[in-house]
Amino acid sequence: MTRLIFLGPPGAGKGTQAKALADHWQIPHISTGDILRQALKDQTPLGIKAKGYMDRGELVPDQLVQDMVEERLTQADTKHGWILDGFPRTVQQAGFLEALLDRLDHHGEKVVNLDVPDEIVIGRLLERGRKDDTESVIRRRLEVYREETAPLIDYYTGKQQLVIVNGNQSLEEVTVEIGQAISC
Ligand code: AP5
């Protein structure tokens, strides 16, 4: 049973690796960024509320994202495993997730932190060019990452759930290193 959480700065490769592994293991890839972008595209109340935060590179309020994740993780296809990409992103979200997984009887999740230097992720994102990939918004996303999300590295280290993978190598090398790290 594979239950994985991807941590790392914007552009670290969380989405790329999560998608490849989820396809390989035939388990859902749950990306909060993708769900929010779809909600925005569909102009749902959630998407409309999230838009301003996403455009500025700020985090969408915890409660909105937590409700969305709860709704997704309680669907039947998560029974045989899942990969979370982009959640949790705050200590509050991590506490919420822990309580939710306890309630759902989902245990043994591992947390993969993709480690990539700022100058590399900035270059990758400018090249990708998503709507929130302008230089000023990328810099804000990185600040928010350092302030709100990086503390989760200590949080999960303390729980002995964290593995650190060098995300600054080829896609294939990163995938292999993740496989090795989570099988230890
Ligand atoms: P989200 O979509 O999660 O964005 P992010 O964390 O900024 O992550 P990215 O998608 O930019 O990067 P990634 O690490 O997935 O890298 P990727 O694989 O795409 O969130 C967007 C917004 O939604 C947030 O700013 C926030 O507003 C909101 N949000 C989402 N979750 C939230 C939450 N939990 N709470 C509150 N708000 C939330 O790769 C990037 C590029 O690099 C690609 O072009 C890829 O091809 C390339 N690449 C990847 N790996 C490599 C490699 N090894 N070598 C070379 N290139 C590579």
TrEMBL record:
Question: An example Gene Ontology cellular component term from the record?
Answer: cytoplasm
Protein residues bound to AMP: T32, R37, E58, L59, V60, G86, F87, P88, R89, Q93, R130, R141
GO annotation, biological process: AMP salvage
Cite the binding residues for ATP. G11, A12, G13, K14, G15, T16, R128, Q169
PANTHER family listed in its UniProt record: NUCLEOTIDE KINASE (PTHR23359)
Q: Which family does it belong to?
A: Belongs to the adenylate kinase family.
Name of the protein in question:
Adenylate kinase
Q: What's the source species for this entry?
A: Dulcicalothrix desertica PCC 7102
